[in-house]
Amino acid sequence: MSAAHTALYPGTFDPVTKGHLDIIERAARLVDRLVIGVAVNAGKGPLFTVGERVEMVEAAIAPIAARNGTVIEVQAFDSLLIHFARSIEARLIIRGLRAVSDFEYEFQMAGMNARLAPGIETVFLMASEGVHFISSRFVKEIARLAGDISPFVTPEVLDRVTAKVAGEGPGLRLASGAASAHE
């Protein structure tokens, strides 16, 4: 398959949400091959291991891949994004935007990536209206406070988040702060 038709959608996906799936489904219509890059990113203090996150993303994208026909792969990575993009021969990096506040950070990152790898373009997809407010951080916080996250995640992810949060015990909470577009 031509590298010109391969795109990378990177993120932490801790956990994968319906907002992520919206971007994945739409990105898959634009390319022949879409690689979902699950960043190890231990600095963010993920709820799930990278292996668990890869499994959740694979399960969540199965229906999209089945109906779309695009090759969709999930791979973990722990390197500079541009190095990973080159290793999979991606010519596009897909980034989702939920709000204007996401744009400033993403714009800076796209500029830096363009400087590091001029042959790899960044494409921004605006989150669809029904999912633009969903973030992994909010999903985890709601779950930890015993709220209903079922509208924001798939049933399998719901079960896994619920089990993981129940295993944390009382008193554990996320640090406060705005949600990041890079989850």
Question: What does this entry look like structurally?
Answer:
The chain is of the alpha/beta class and 183 residues long. The chain has a single domain, classed as 3-Layer(aba) Sandwich (Rossmann fold). 42% of the residues lie in helices and 17% in strands. The protein has six helices and five strands; from the N terminus they run βαβαβαβαβαα. The protein has helices at 18-28, 50-68, 81-87, 100-116, 136-144, 155-168; strands at 6-11, 33-39, 71-77, 92-97, 121-126. Strands 3-2-1-4-5 form a five-stranded parallel sheet, sandwiched between helices.
Q: Total helix count?
A: 6
Major sheet size, sense and barrel closure: 5 strands, parallel
Which term fits the overall shape? Answer: globular
Q: What is the terminal separation in angstroms?
A: 29 Å
List the SSEs and their pairings.
Blueprint: E1 6-11, H1 18-28, E2 33-39, H2 50-68, E3 71-77, H3 81-87, E4 92-97, H4 100-116, E5 121-126, H5 136-144, H6 155-168
Parallel strand pairs: 1-2, 1-4, 2-3, 4-5
Helix pairs in contact: 1-2
